[in-house]
């Protein structure tokens, strides 16, 4: 009798142990922590970078047909001006640039002696904008003002030696929020040196290639017009090497 009861107790202990083992196996396989998951999605739409010229202002006697500007009756010693007002018509903040493409027949002397930056003492230019106030008093730093009139050097006229400068191909003129506008001005003039003789140029200096092409470029803020990711919208003239040099504080794109 006692032996049978002992057997039943042993069997019961075996069953309980087996059940505990099964519970442990189940717990390790299915997890016992409480969880909750919220599912979402991300949708995106592209913004736009666009600009519009809303006004072109010229002095009396000068004309514009669309974006083609004509400065009439240019004279040495008198600058001509054009002002553009540009509006950000896109949905994103953007940078605005006054840029001169590489279709202008050469931007420096090394490009073929036809670009505006080959005028030397004969020309000066200015760009005025909310962000940039720059003057370019001598558009050739290969032959600066005061260079002797040796053969092939056609921009000596006895004027005092001035700053050596050039007109950059890409000029940062504004940063605009959507809907905002800015006005900037480009000025150019032939200097009095143009009318002088005895400098090896028969009394006159070279004229820049006509017409001088320009682009008003809107980019994502901080991106230059010639950035390779812009798909070739603007192609800048190559940065020249020696003997051309940048003025202190200037960069090729600014």
Low-pLDDT sequence parts: 5-13, 197-204
> How many strands in all?
10
The helix/strand series, from N terminus to C terminus, equals: HEEEEEEEEEE
**What proportion of the residues form beta strands (DSSP E)?**
15-25%
> Helix share of residues?
10-25%
Radius of gyration of CA atoms, rounded to a whole number: 36 Å
Strand count, sense and barrel status of the largest sheet are: 5 strands, antiparallel
Q: Between the first and last Cα atoms, what is the distance in angstroms?
A: 106 Å
Number of domains: 2
Shape by Cα distribution: elongated
Number of helices: 1
Average pLDDT metric: 77
Structural class: alpha+beta
- Strand adjacency order, main sheet: 1-4-9-6-7
Which helices and strands appear, and what pairs or packs with what?
Blueprint: H1 2-30, E1 51-58, E2 63-65, E3 68-70, E4 80-88, E5 94-99, E6 123-128, E7 133-136, E8 170-176, E9 181-190, E10 215-220
Antiparallel strand pairs: 1-4, 2-3, 4-9, 5-8, 5-10, 6-7, 6-9
State the gist of this model.
With 254 residues, this protein is an alpha+beta fold. 11% of the residues lie in helices and 24% in strands.
Keywords:
3-stranded antiparallel sheet, 1 helix, 5-stranded antiparallel sheet, 254 residues, 2 domains, alpha+beta, elongated, 10 strands
Describe this structure in words.
- This protein is an alpha+beta fold and 254 residues long.
- The chain folds into two domains: 1-32; 51-230, no CATH class.
- The chain has one helix and ten strands; from the N terminus they run αββββββββββ.
- Strands 1-4-9-6-7 form a five-stranded antiparallel sheet, with no helix packed on it. Strands 8-5-10 form a three-stranded antiparallel sheet, with no helix packed on it. A two-stranded antiparallel ribbon has the order 2-3.
- The radius of gyration is 36 Å and the shape is elongated.
- The model is unreliable at 5-13 and 197-204 (pLDDT under 50).
């Amino acid at each position: 009798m006692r032996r049978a009861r002992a057997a039943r107790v042993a069997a019961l202990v075996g069953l309980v142990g087996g059940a505990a083992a099964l519970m442990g196996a189940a717990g390790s396989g299915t997890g016992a922590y409480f969880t909750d998951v919220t599912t979402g999605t991300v949708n995106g739409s592209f913004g736009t970078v666009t600009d519009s010229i809303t006004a072109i202002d010229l002095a009396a006697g000068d004309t514009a047909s669309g974006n083609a500007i004509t400065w009439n009756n240019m004279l040495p010693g008198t600058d001509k001006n054009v002002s553009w007002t540009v509006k950000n018509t896109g949905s994103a903040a953007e940078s605005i640039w006054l840029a001169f493409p590489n279709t202008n027949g050469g931007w420096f002397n090394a490009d073929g002696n036809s670009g505006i930056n080959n005028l030397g003492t004969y020309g000066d230019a200015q760009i005025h904008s909310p962000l940039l106030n720059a003057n370019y008093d001598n558009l050739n730093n290969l032959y600066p003002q005061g260079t002797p009139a040796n053969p092939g050097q056609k921009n000596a006229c006895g004027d005092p030696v001035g700053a050596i400068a050039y007109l950059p191909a890409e000029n940062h003129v504004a940063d605009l929020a959507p809907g905002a506008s800015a006005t900037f001005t480009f000025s150019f003039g032939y200097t009095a040196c143009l009318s002088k003789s005895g400098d090896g140029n028969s009394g006159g200096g070279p004229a820049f290639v006509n017409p001088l092409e320009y682009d008003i470029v809107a980019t994502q803020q901080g991106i230059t017009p010639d950035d390779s990711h812009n798909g070739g919208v603007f192609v800048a003239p190559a940065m020249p090497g020696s003997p051309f040099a940048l003025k202190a504080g200037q960069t090729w794109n600014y």
